[in-house]
Amino acid sequence: MAHNTPANARISTNAFLESKLNHLRDRSLGSSAVRATTAEIARILAVEATQGQRPQGKIGLIVVLRSGLGMMDAFLSHFAPDTDVVVYHIGMFREKYSLQPVEYYNKLPNNNTEIKRVYVVDPLIATGGTATAVIEILRDWGVEHITFVSMLTSQQGLEHAAKAWPEGTEFVIGAVDSSLDEAGYILPGVGDIGDRLFGTGLSQ
Q1: Which of 44, 69, 121, 150 is 20 to 30 A from 93 via CA?
Q2: Which residue range or ranges hold the Phosphoribosyltransferase domain (predicted)?
Q3: Residues above pLDDT 70, as percent of the chain
Q4: Can you state the percent helix, strand and coil of the chain, rounding each to 5?
């Protein structure tokens, strides 16, 4: 478990998840294996994120594009068939030089009167900037409770994101790595998970 874990964060101690995450660190894995491993990790985290909860009414699953797509189906499959789940997507990318988040897609309805609890899936929290931006968007939208689910974070990124709205957000995390490189990638990390999931670009 990481040192200085924020009070609103839970780090998994699941040995199978740890094994799968170590497998994912292998940069020689092809995209198919990366997708399968990501889905396996997402299923474990879905169990941990919803343990002891019986959501009432409509809940939201917020998928952070594009890498959150790798967790979406596995997470959805965990909900009971009668659970009223609506899926929304928020597109964010990190500007190359400033490392600041840029929103490029958001189809949240203008008026939210029904959805008060949401689960956010985004495989990595690196600097914490994207997570913070998503939390602020959802808070402004009228959500009352956010469970933010990620496979891997940096210590710095988790601490930063956890401060965004501590009374309304909890984090369920697979593991925490110690640091970031100059380009904002987690070290040792898993590289550019979006590129690895979809076979685009070069893995970092």
Answers
A1: 44
A2: 50-200
A3: 97
A4: 30, 25, 40
